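pasting for ref. prot 1 ->
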Amino acid sequence: MVRESLLQSLRSRTPAAFVETHLFDCVPAVFAGDRSLFVGWKRELAEKIEVDPACITIVGSAAAGASLNPSKNFKLFDGDSDIDVAVVSPDHFSIAWRYLRMNGARRLSVDARTRIAWDKHVKRYIYWGTIATDRLLGVMPFGLQWLKATTEMGQVPPTVGRSVNLRIYADYDSLRAYHEQSIRSLRDSQIG
């Protein structure tokens, strides 16, 4: 049912309208329609990472109810799914971007997976105004604080036992552009 609903929405909406409906202007699926639980969860995370709660958006399968990754074929959000969180923070983006740019030598001393992630940022993510922190959060100046926050949020209902992943966006335009491009790719792969 969720897959068919998302496919219909892909066919009938522009990427901008799809993103607004299924990611930005909704109570994420993980919160099962409970807006006050969602707002409280965002407020708690925001306090822990020192951003405004309005700058936090749940994206991906935790928001839409199924994966929007073209290679995952609308895999339903389930007990093993993680929570992907978009954090719009020009300050944190600037700190992270500057750190990546200024610490190229440190790049050589990190493990291979982190080095690959670092290289992807130089070649791909920075263009979209995003820092995917999954492999890089530990090297960022604010990394320990944010890692602690994600661990603690994995103990707060309804995200108990789930991995909470943060991605930083330079501004709302970057957040929107990144997700609209992803939805264009999804639409092209699914309906041509």
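and prot 2 ->
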Amino acid sequence: MEENKDTKKNGEVVQEEVPGDTPQETAGEQQEQAKEDVKQEDEAVKALEARVAEVNDKYIRLAAEFDNYRRRTARERLDLISTAGEDIIKGMLPVLDDCERALQVLRESDADKSAIEGTELIYNKLMAYLKGRGLSVIESLGKELDTDYHEAVAQLPVQEKKQKNRIVDVIQQGYKLNDKVIRFAKVVVGV
């Protein structure tokens, strides 16, 4: 870098050049250094932005995974609560079937009116209790065969075309517990 140095000789000011860079060379080097510094800063900023994006992505994925976990466990808990008594209710279905058969036999045999009323009372109380727990009857008679709800155990020839592929008799009533089939209806289908 050349510097000018002012000195006095015989009363005159004389500029002496000091060996070194000229001002133009110094400015060029400073500009190159500044460009290099900007490049390094840009690379550092890009690296930090990439790191922030990566951390943000991991955070979003973790939050989504936790939300899915929370929903899944809530759904499993609701399913468990809604079907908690399924085994008990399944065990009571034969008793319900026996009540239905007893009522049918009593009505067909012209039994005492009080016996019919007593059996109906027991049947209605049992049915009301089970319905309160989410049990519902699968309506079958006269409906078209639906293998999601019905199990065809026999076929019966029918004269009317309307009766074809329709249920003409119910052998055993089917039941659902909170929209889940716990026993398929055993039916006779017209062909």
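The radius of gyration is 46 Å.
The first strand starts at residue 3 and ends at 9.
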